[in-house]
Automatic annotation (TrEMBL), chain A:
This is Xanthine dehydrogenase family protein molybdopterin-binding subunit. InterPro entries: Ald_Oxase/Xan_DH_a/b, Ald_Oxase/Xan_DH_a/b_sf, Ald_Oxase/xanthine_DH-like, AldOxase/xan_DH_MoCoBD1, AldOxase/xan_DH_MoCoBD2, AldOxase/xan_DH_Mopterin-bd_sf. Pfam families: Ald_Xan_dh_C, MoCoBD_1, MoCoBD_2. Signal peptide: none annotated. Residues 139-169 are annotated as: Disordered. It comes from the Bacteria.
Automatic annotation (TrEMBL), chain B:
Keywords: Oxidoreductase. This is Xanthine dehydrogenase family protein subunit M. The keyword Oxidoreductase applies. It comes from the Bacteria. PANTHER family: OXIDOREDUCTASE (PTHR42659:SF1), XANTHINE DEHYDROGENASE SUBUNIT C-RELATED (PTHR42659).
Length: 705, 331
């Protein structure tokens, strides 16, 4: 679909934006009427019921499949077929080796798909999968991310940023500096585990592939799978009306989506359902790479930074490169004349890491904000004051003026609300019964991202109603609700007059719900289309007239540095006898532009804070180096925060309108809540105990005496 | 799909006969552990004998002041029972420290004692495990070890028993009442679970087909002043890193007349710290004296990088628990 490119005007008069409109899909969801990916009542053209697919995965970390013996599986009642690398349909393009499954006998990580069982019920599919005998030949592997793992410099890092940056002579400046920090910070394997696993129902009718998917981007899935399958994009339709969470793991298509597509193509006319098991999610659907950040800071005695180095090492897979941009936030946070950032990657025989809420910013700001806390200590300065002192006038990375940097206000507002001024300066100063008590602070940041290419369509309906369409997705964030509000204000009508159609790749192009760019990018396109619709058809259009417009670049990304900022304050208690950590208070104050819907925004920010708390205290995937297998592969052994871990938690935001970023005045809010949170918790545990822990998670054993 | 026969037992004796006569039959209690294992393929019985509806669901006070707990008393009911909270607070607190409200509503007393290890390799049929598949090897040695044992482990198995309730029962000298084909027998709690030795597949001293029908608690001074503390990786819904069940009775001059200490999270069975108990009898309770007693018990501990923390953790927690009891604190 081609459409004229329109760059919208700012939305100056708003009546729905800024209100806590109830979730449009709330009732369907809480009453169970919402149909998720494997719940769609899909049948074949002649009423064929769906087949159930089950994945068979490798148990060696590197090697090859010698033979797949399906005899016992095929003899089992209900099993229809077993697809392996000898029988799977051939792909037209196998360059993406994460997705090019079942094309050859190579095994590149433990947990890789080596066969798919199709059966009449999910029980027989599962039992059939257990009966498939895969003879594997193991080769020596390297699956442990170690200090001496060989590394290389990727061409660029996730998000397209430069691998290394250098300004001035940081090494010389560090050698001269009077106050320094030189420390290494690590974060472990973290796994995004949305409640709804990766799942899809696929139907191949011989001409067209229809995929009811659980994805953050129907169009990106279509755009990736179609050429690999040798199909035109129009031959693939991806729908994702309801998605039970993604957290980045459903941002890029992963191997299970290809598996269900290939399986469906072996049984034309018959739908195929696949739900990945919780255990399989630890290998097949992306995860956050472990990171090791070497941070060096050099400052004057008054705390002003002179030099800053952040050298980040992360893990990647031999199957496909993923280079987490952990040192990127260090490029924008603080003023320092001498600066360097580098990224190196260790390529291992492991599953492919991918996006997990705030890739780069989350582990990178953990390292940096703990280092800044250490610097404050060495300089004898309050950590808030130290940060204020190092505020850059312009973006240190690009030299551009800031669009809307209000970090200092976030820090001050948070300090005031949290009662920061009453805090004892020294560590290990407060005991309350069995607990050491301390407080900590950290800053957060997330870039304003805008995705090009979005297109929206506006059509007038009877009775003053409007149909608005874009292939956006609501992964539980509230996108369906906030896009309705944006459309209402852009058209000057109440939200009830908007019929929003989304989450279908047949609709005009919508980019991925990722990088906190969804509302920004889709919303800009909706405003552009609405304004063009008014220009084309006036205030009183006849029913049935429509306008489709592609979003021009509204955001002033070339002239200004556009970022969100925030400050996180934490109270931590560390048990004097066991070292257990509890967090009774957590507060985030953010500057994120205008908040389109306070209700859904609050839940995004709180959700981010909880996820950051969870990373601080609990989350750690344990990959057994002997087998390359993540053995903590369920939610009883991969701990995430339980309700009892989340106590008094709150998020607030500054009154903001950012007309440089979007016509709505908003920026993205999906990820910033997780950024900096783990550092605030770590800094609070230091203040409580005097023990500096640099390796996440902050488990009890670190503090035990 | 696997064929599975389901019997709902009418009486205890026929349930025992059904299971004892069939090596592939299992008792089904609340199912919160066994059903997970069926799904994971950890065990593949062909027959389930549901004992959860047998009328063994009462808590009765015994003439000597003790308590008899039917096996089908649910964990949440037992924790809330007034007599238990008054006379055996350690039992109520241990139960409440375990699992979640929903699971406790479903879980039975006998099922809780017979729940199996949470060792990640035991629960993953793609990895070798001597407990699940005897003779295949122990993946936990040299593997993931955070929850492994530090006392009484063997070369065949290094895992721990996960039950909180069992640790409390060990500290109150409970007796497990068991029905077998030859009738009833009574097993002291300390002899109920076993150390792994070279038969880690055998968690307890029960024979196949023996049914737990009740647990009996004697009324003692140490049980009356008792409590449970558990250290864990999150505030709730996590198994113990280590736990301490303790009961204390003091002389008029404040010395220890009698004491019970049982540890969870350190061994293949609830670990009665008898060396530490002996050290403390006749002494005053102080952080120092309890730490020293715990260290005497822990002299036998074998640790590695991943389990080293358990020694100071259980020592500290024991000191905190007993000093708290001595002060009359009843947390
Ligand atoms: C997520 C999760 C977290 C948990 N956290 C904890 C925790 O923190 N602490 C804790 O202690 N527990 C915890 N549990 C375990 C829970 O306590 C047990 O699953 C439960 O007590 C088992 O009881 P049940 O009646 O459901 O047993 P079932 O699952 O029915 O049976 C378990 C075993 O006992 C056998 N059995 C059952 N009844 C009898 C009987 N009368 N005689 C002989 N054999 C019998 C069965 O054959 C089976 O082998 C947790 C469980 C889950 C799922
Ligand atoms: S420790 Fe025991 S349960 Fe765990 S793998 Fe070894 S034998 Fe199996």
């Amino acid at each position: 679909m081609t459409a004229d490119q329109v760059t919208p005007e700012p939305l100056r008069s708003t009546s729905s934006i800024g209100t806590s409109l109830l979730r449009r899909d709330g009732v369907e969801k809480v009453t169970g009427d919402a149909t998720y990916a494997v719940e769609h009542p899909v049948t074949g053209p002649a009423g064929e019921p769906p087949l159930h697919a089950w994945l068979v995965t490798s148990t060696v970390a590197r090697g090859r499949v010698v033979a797949v013996d399906a005899t016992a599986a095929l003899a089992h009642a209900g099993v229809v077929s077993v697809v392996d690398h000898t029988s799977a349909p051939r792909l037209a393009d196998t360059s993406d080796r994460e997705l090019a499954i079942l094309q050859d006998d190579a095994i590149a990580f433990r947990g890789q798909i080596v066969a798919i069982v199709l059966a009449e019920t999910s029980e027989s599919a599962r039992e059939g999968a257990a009966l498939v005998h895969v003879e594997q030949e193991a080769e020596p592997h390297a699956a442990a991310f170690q200090e001496d793992s060989p590394t290389y410099a990727p061409e660029s890092v996730n998000g397209g940023s430069e691998t290394d940056t250098l300004d001035g002579d940081p090494d010389e400046a560090l050698a001269r500096a009077l106050v320094t920090v030189d420390a290494t910070y690590t974060t472990p394997h973290e796994h995004n585990n949305p409640m709804e696993p990766h799942a899809a129902t696929a139907l191949w009718d011989g001409e067209r592939l229809t995929l009811h998917d659980s994805t953050q981007g129907p169009r990106p899935v279509r755009g990736t799978l179609a050429p690999m399958l040798g199909l035109a994009e129009e031959q693939v339709r991806v729908l994702a009306p309801y998605v039970g969470g993604g957290f980045g793991s459903k941002g890029l298509p992963h191997a299970p989506e290809m598996a269900v597509a290939l399986a469906a193509m072996t049984v034309p006319g018959q739908p195929v359902r696949l739900a990945v098991t919780r255990q399989q999610m630890f290998a097949l659907t992306g995860y956050r790479t472990p990171t090791r950040s070497h941070v060096r800071l050099g400052a004057h005695p008054d705390g002003r930074l002179e030099a800053l180095r952040h050298d980040a090492v992360t893990q990647s897979s031999r199957v496909k490169e993923f280079a987490e941009q952990a040192a990127v936030p260090a490029r924008v946070m603080y003023a320092a004349p001498h600066r360097a950032t580098t990224h190196r990657v260790a390529e291992l025989d492991v599953p492919v890491p991918s996006w997990m809420r705030a890739p780069g910013e989350m582990p990178g700001m953990y390292a940096q904000e703990v280092a800044v806390d250490e610097l404050a200590l060495h300089a004898g300065l309050d950590p808030v004051a130290l940060r204020v002192r190092n505020e850059p006038d312009v973006d240190p990375d690009t030299g551009n003026p800031w669009g809307n940097r209000r970090l200092v206000e976030c820090l001050r507002r948070g300090a005031e609300r949290f009662g920061w001024a009453d805090r004892p300066t020294g560590a290990r100063a407060t005991v309350d019964g069995e607990w050491w008590v301390g407080t900590g602070v950290a800053a957060s940041t997330y870039p304003m991202l805008w995705m090009p290419g979005n297109i929206a369509r506006v059509r007038s309906l009877d009775g003053g109603r409007y149909a608005v369409a874009i292939a956006a997705t609501d992964i539980g964030t509230g996108a369906r609700t906030v896009l309705t509000q944006i459309a209402a204000d852009a058209l000057g009508c109440p939200p009830e007059a908007i019929d929003l159609d989304m989450a279908d790749s047949d609709l005009p192009f919508g980019s991925v719900a990722g990088g906190s760019s969804g509302t920004t990018s889709w919303g800009t396109a909706i405003v552009a289309a609405a304004q063009q619709f008014r220009a084309d058809h006036g205030e009183h259009p006849d029913p049935g007239v429509e306008t489709t417009a592609a979003s021009g670049q509204y955001a002033d990304m070339d002239g200004h540095a556009l970022h969100s900022f925030g400050a996180v304050f934490c109270e931590a208690r560390v048990h004097r006898y066991t070292g257990e950590v509890r967090v009774p208070r957590l507060l985030g104050v953010y500057s994120v532009g205008r908040v389109v819907n306070p209700r859904t925004a609050r839940s995004q920010l709180l959700g981010g804070l909880v996820m950051g708390l969870s990373a601080a205290l609990h989350e750690e995937g344990w990959r057994d180096p002997r087998t390359g297998h993540t053995v903590t592969q369920d939610l009883a052994t991969y701990h995430v925060a339980a309700h009892a871990d989340v106590r008094d938690i709150d998020a607030e935001w500054l009154d903001d309108i950012d007309e440089l970023s979007t016509p709505m005045g908003s920026r993205g809010i999906g990820e910033i809540g997780i950024v900096g949170t783990a550092a605030a918790v770590a800094n609070a545990t230091y203040h409580a105990t005097g023990v500096r822990v640099r390796d996440l998670p902050l488990t009890a054993d670190h503090f035990l005496e | 799909m696997k064929e599975l026969t389901y019997h709902r037992a009418d009486d205890a004796a026929s349930a025992v006969a059904l299971v004892a006569g069939d090596p592939d039959a299992r008792f089904l209690g609340g199912g919160t552990n066994l059903v997970d294992h069926l799904k994971l393929g950890v065990t593949s019985p062909t027959t389930l004998v549901d004992v959860s509806r047998l009328p063994l669901d009462e808590v009765t006070e015994l003439p000597d002041g003790g308590l008899r707990i039917g096996t089908n008393v649910r964990n949440s009911d037992l924790a809330a029972h007034r007599a238990v909270r008054r006379g055996w607070p350690v039992v109520a607190r241990a139960l409440l420290a375990g699992a979640s409200g929903q699971i406790r509503n479903q879980a039975t007393t006998g099922g809780n004692l017979l729940q199996r290890t949470r060792c990640v390799y035991f629960q993953d049929v793609t990895t070798p495990c001597n407990k699940r598949d005897p003779g295949t090897g122990c993946s936990a040695i040299g593997g993931y070890g955070r929850y492994n044992a530090v006392l009484g482990a063997s070369e065949a198995c290094v895992t721990t028993h996960p039950s909180d309730l069992a640790v409390a029962l060990a500290a109150v000298d409970a007796t497990v009442v068991v029905l077998g084909q030859d009738g009833e027998r009574r097993v002291p709690m300390s002899d109920f679970h076993r150390l792994p030795g070279d038969r880690p597949e055998q968690d307890t001293t029960l024979a196949h087909g023996e049914l737990v029908t009740a647990v009996e608690l004697p009324a003692t001074g140490t049980a009356r002043r008792s409590t449970y503390r558990k250290a864990r990786d999150r505030a709730s819904y996590a198994f113990a890193l280590v736990s301490v069940a303790a009961g204390l009775e003091l002389d008029d001059d404040g010395r220890v007349r009698d004491v019970r200490i049982a540890w969870g999270g350190v061994a293949h069975k609830p670990w009665r710290a008898e060396v530490a108990e002996a050290e403390l009898r006749g002494r005053f309770v102080s952080e120092e004296s309890v730490r020293a007693a715990a260290e005497a018990e822990l002299a036998a501990a074998v640790t590695d990088e991943q389990t080293a923390y358990k020694v100071p953790m259980v020592r500290n927690l024991t000191a905190l628990t007993l000093t708290g009891l001595a002060e009359g604190a009843t947390r």
